[in-house]
Design brief:
InterPro entries: A-glucoronidase_C_sf, GH, Glyco_hydro_67_C. With about 220 residues, the chain is mostly helical. It contains six helices and two strands, in the order αβαβαααα. Strands 1-2 form a two-stranded antiparallel sheet.
Length: about 220
């Protein structure tokens, strides 16, 4: 589980060298891929409706690859010889990888695969029940359960932003499909009754203030 956790986390948070798709503007926790660009804090994914990814080449990009040893730099400088898992170029969503998948379909596939794998860690932890102290077991299980839910949030946030930007549908039919989601306007409010509440407020002029004054006055003058 420990060895598998790295690629699983990478798959549902950011892959192909895109990375760092967390919220960089507000909470600094959880996904917010839209916060990466079009602001003064970062221009990281360079994603638009046709293309994605930061170009790190010396020839046409940030020049980052010039820091690598010459042989490695030459390998990564050419998009055709760059490994699929390190997308160091600005490319079309529909560019084919060596695997045959388009870049956008790879994004969809691995985000769903990564989040699905995260759902299995809690069950894997069960083999340690009774073999480590209960407090440690429950603490780790809690974190794995949280991760399983958070992986779904990451998956949808990134996949659906890419889908929204590119307009390219998911061949697997997962992105944008929410069979269990209920639209708020379709919900029915049943089993409850509406009741107006009058909470005590300490501010002068509020209902609670006047009730307190009335109560105090009656008791001060000997009235029950």
């Amino acid at each position: 589980m420990f060895v598998a956790s790295w690629p699983v986390y990478e798959n549902y948070t950011g892959n192909l060298g895109i990375q760092a798709l967390s919220d960089i503007l507000y909470t600094h926790f959880g996904p917010n891929p839209a916060s990466q660009d079009n602001n003064g804090r970062g221009q990281w994914t360079r994603a638009d409706h046709l293309t994605i990814s930061m170009d790190r080449t010396v020839k046409n990009g940030t020049g980052y690859l010039g820091q690598c040893p010459p042989k490695i730099a030459a390998l990564y400088e050419d998009v055709e010889t760059t490994p699929d898992e390190l997308l160091l170029h600005h490319v079309n969503y529909t560019q084919r990888q060596k695997s045959g998948n388009t870049v956008i379909q790879h994004f969809y596939d691995v985000h769903y695969a990564g989040s699905a794998a995260a759902q299995t860690f809690g069950a894997d932890m069960d083999v340690l029940r009774g073999k480590i102290d209960d407090e440690k077991y429950e603490e780790v299980l809690f974190r794995l359960t949280y991760q399983a839910g958070h992986a779904l949030v990451w998956r949808c946030a990134i996949s659906e932003l890419c889908h929204c930007l590119s307009g390219v549908p998911d061949e697997a039919g997962g992105v944008g499909v929410h069979p269990w989601r209920i639209v708020a306007e379709d919900m029915r409010f049943e089993g409850h009754r509406v009741s107006l509440g009058y909470p005590v407020r300490e501010g002068v002029g509020g209902p609670g203030h006047h009730q307190k004054l009335k109560h105090y006055s009656r008791h001060r003058h000997g009235h029950a």
